[in-house]
Amino acid sequence: MADIEITVDGGTSKRLLTGGKYCDKNILVTATGGGAEPEPPDDGKTRLYISIPAYPPSEMVPVIDEIPLYFRQTIDRGVTIDWGDNTEQETVQGTSSVNTSHSYQKSGEYIITLSPSNGCELQLGANNRPLFGSDDAVANTLLRVFVGKGLTSLYTACFNNCRALYQVYIPDSVTSIPDRSFYYCQGLSKLIVKGDLVKIGISALYECSALVEVPVPSQKDGLNRESYAFCRSIKTIRFPNGIETIPSRIAVSSYSITKLTIPDSVTSIGDWAFAGISSFKELRVLPTTPPTVEAHTFNQLPSGCVIYVPVGSLESYKTATNWSVYADQMQEEPA
After folding, report:
1. Where are the extended beta strands (E) located within 17-155?
2. Which domain holds residue 1?
């Protein structure tokens, strides 16, 4: 008997014999851990990895009757949809906002592939709806997303409430994460962004509580209110070069943050920006002139958090409005 060839997602081929038996099928193997994250195929296609649960005690009858898709296309029937279950591929009539749906006959894991034709721009989400619509049960079938270079932008709230989504790959063709894009994606632990982001929108990563690292926009005004709110696993935040205003509630209740540096370009910090962060141990404020802060900017700042300020600026900070309440925690930067 000849070895079978197993194609690992991404294009790597292996020959494998397990349990002394050979298999005569194509097998999709997803490897986890033990090396660098595999790059998705560079073919312009977007892949959505879903899992359709079954009614207990059945192992076959799917719980979800239909999976809807809402997206935008710039060419009539410009996006080909492969639902991943060996049914006929589909295109959708119309330009701009369109939608369709598909019924799976069996429970299991599937890969939905979206293939834009030449010149067709694809955007996930449309008609004021997320990619999979507004049904929470449907949203929770989505596990992974590999965005292809044929996609140029995400839509507002495109992955809203996809709580089982744990990995997203975004290519350099996408330059912004719009408002509420990953709102309540509590299982999202890996967000891979390959290019420079111009903007991270309002509540874009709200309560992505499994993320340990968040992307940073390249534009100084690229952050917005609640961009990182309730990201409970991040330890720190980096800011864009030249940032002047840190938005309100940007990281409210991201309570695992231990250290933070406020860049010397900052002139104001919004209300509740860093409130409810119980793990704060060190706050470095680099501007020689105290930035304007509000009454609740650092609400519930732990008494053990040390606030370092520039040499020669200590008295200014100790007497500045809304900074003065933390005077006992301040000291000059060590030489």
Report:
1. 28-29, 46-52, 67-73, 79-82, 96-102, 108-116, 122-124, 142-146, 151-154
2. 1-38
What are the pLDDT digits (tens) for 253-263? 999 999 999 99
Overall residue count recorded for the chain in this entry: 335
**Tens-place pLDDT, residues 94-135:** 999 999 999 998 889 999 999 999 999 999 999 889 999 989
- Point out which residues pair with 8 in neighbouring strands: 12, 29
Asked if residue 309 is part of any domain, the answer here is: no
Bond prior to 57 in cis (omega within 30° of 0):
yes
State the pTM of this model: 0.84
What's the number of domains the chain is made of?
1
Query: What phi, psi does 14 have (nearest 5°)?
Result: -135, 155
Q: Which two tokens stand for residue 135?
A: 């049904």
Six-digit token string for 309: 């300020």
> What residues have CB less than 8 Å from 279, skipping those under 6 apart?
255, 256, 257, 258, 302
